[in-house]
Amino acid sequence: MTDDNAETAFSSSYTRTSGWVTMGWAYYNDAMMKGWVYNPGLTSYLLSSCIALPKGTVKLSFDYMALSTAKLNVYLVTEPGVYDCLAGSIELPAAEEYTAGSMTFNVPDDDIYTIAITPDNSYVGSFYLDYIKIDETGADVAVVSIDSPKLNATLAQSGVTVAATFRNAGGTLLENIPVCCQLDNGTILRETIDRIEVGESHQHTFATGTVDLSAVGSHTLKVWTEMDGDSESANNAITQTISAYEAYDFPFEASFEADEQNENWITYNADNDILYWEIMQVIDGNINYAKDGQQAAYMSSASGIEHNDWLISPAINALRAMRAFRFITPRE
User: Fold this and answer.
1) Fewest CB within 10 A of the end CB: N or C in the chain?
2) What is the pLDDT of residues 298-319, one digit of tens each?
3) What are the backbone dihedrals phi and psi of residue 235, each rounded to the nearest 5 degrees, phi first?
4) Does residue 251 or residue 209 have the better pLDDT?
5) d(CA 291, CA 330)
6) 62/287 Cα distance (integer angstroms)
7) Burial of 325 from C-beta contacts in 10 A (0-12 / 13-18 / 19+)
8) What is the rounded distance in angstroms from the CA atom of residue 25 to the CA atom of residue 47?
9) How high is the pLDDT of residue 4?
10) Are the C-beta atoms of residues 116 and 46 closer than 8 Å to each other?
11) How many Å apart are CA 64 and CA 26, to the nearest integer?
12) 8 A C-beta contact, residue 202 and residue 232
């Protein structure tokens, strides 16, 4: 699917507009929105035109945006209006800008099918799809996440273990998968994962070495794969910026202005959605929401999204005594 054929190659099974609210799938291509956009409120499927599919495993690739973690379901349809053949599902992490995604699904027989796509009914919020491609499967290993070190800031220390999750995003069993990690421009750790089954994920802990975060300042950790014949290079690497610091003296205060070391605050987004703590300028038109200066720690909200987000201070050398903690909100 491209911009030229988006509305002929795909269609919505049902769309309803009430006032300014559109429910179901609808296509947009303007300055505000682009792609097929799903809004909850009714059952709706994004339907492909009829496609001759071979028996076996087929790969679905796409770009997507999602407000929070989303389960995407794909059905194979041979009779109009009958959506009882669930071919595959995938859990997609939140993405606040278009991000490459892919999944494989099983085709039971050589036949002509319509592919029906919809988020699981537990999903709340808008879901965007663009540049959909249906193709043969090839070998594909994806780096899903860096799991250790998990947070964006840490006390300066050496001997830090690196762990990451990798997924078999292709249609064949993967064996002897080369994986690598590197901090800044230091030593590259190269190891091998024995095997990952189709559609499965594997968390790998690098056992041949650790990384050194003892130098105060910003560091970049990269994790990637080097598998020959990988059919999708866009998902082969991931990076994480980590700030290493020394514990702060007591008493401690922060106003989050631009000249402070805000990178040493941890902003932990446990649900991996697109609503999280940010340290930013909080001026809206003529209104300044900061107590002093122009910046503050800020988190927005959205209907239906439950927050599990943490703003965590740097470590503080506090004396053993009763201490007061005070923070300012826009109401004070």
Assistant:
1) C
2) 887 765 667 788 999 999 987 6
3) -110, 20
4) 209
5) 7
6) 40
7) exposed
8) 10
9) 72
10) yes
11) 14
12) no
- Amino acid residing at 322: M
Pick the most confident of 56-65, 91-100, 132-141, 154-163: 154-163
Mean pLDDT of 99-120: 91
Name the residue with tokens 């076996």: 56
User: In the prediction, which pLDDT does 96 show?
Assistant: 83
Closest CA to 57 of 71, 45, 74: 74
**Tokens, residue 293:** 């200066």
Please give the structure tokens belonging to residue 209.
Answer: 């070495």
How many residues are present in the chain? Answer: 332
Instruction: Report the range out of 39-43, 103-107, 323-327 with the highest average pLDDT.
Output: 103-107
Tokens linked to 75: 């059905």
Is the separation of the CB atoms in 129 and 11 below 8 Å? no
